[in-house]
From TrEMBL:
Lineage: Eukaryota, Fungi, Fungi incertae sedis, Zoopagomycota, Kickxellomycotina
Annotated TM spans: none
UniProt entry keywords in alphabetical sequence: DNA-binding, Nucleus, Transcription, Transcription regulation
CC annotations in GO: nucleus
A GO term for molecular function: sequence-specific DNA binding
Gene3D superfamilies linked to this entry: Winged helix-like DNA-binding domain superfamily/Winged helix DNA-binding domain (1.10.10.10)
Protein's cellular compartments: Nucleus
Domain HSF-type DNA-binding: 5-108
PANTHER family found in the cross-reference section: HEAT SHOCK FACTOR PROTEIN, HEAT SHOCK TRANSCRIPTION FACTOR
A Pfam entry, by short name: HSF_DNA-bind
Family that this chain belongs to: Belongs to the HSF family.
Organism of this sequence: Linderina pennispora
InterPro entries on file: HSF_DNA-bd, WH-like_DNA-bd_sf, WH_DNA-bd_sf
Keyword Ubl conjugation (UniProt): no
The protein's name in its UniProt record: Winged helix DNA-binding domain-containing protein
Length: 108
């Protein structure tokens, strides 16, 4: 039996965020310590079904929470985003260019 070092959800999330073809909807932030979703509804329809077995935004956010990700609020990030639907999520071990740290992300 082969033991996976980290959860499939986390691996798929890392691939999705890192894929330059999805950058118009989901991408790393400039500093690489969090990721942003520009349009949750479009992401749910266009991208989530390619990586996961569903296109449900609420389910996706619930999964993020179960793995210890937290939503970065506007003030924490130093400002207000205006009318955009921008969502940002952060996890201590989810970092651009550091896939080895994914194994430290555990389901609660």
């Amino acid at each position: 039996v082969i033991q996976r070092t980290h959860a499939a959800f986390v691996s798929k999330l890392y691939a999705m965020v890192s894929d330059s073809k999805t950058d118009q909807l989901i991408s790393w932030t400039a500093d690489g310590d969090s990721f942003q979703v520009m349009d949750p509804m479009e992401l749910s329809q266009e991208i989530l079904p390619l990586y996961f077995k569903h296109g449900n935004w609420q389910s996706f956010v619930r999964q993020l929470n179960m793995y210890g990700f937290h939503k970065v609020n506007d003030l924490e990030y130093g400002g207000v985003f205006g009318d955009t639907q921008l969502w940002m999520f952060k996890h201590l071990h989810f970092l651009r260019g550091q896939p080895k740290r994914l194994q430290m992300i555990k389901r609660r």
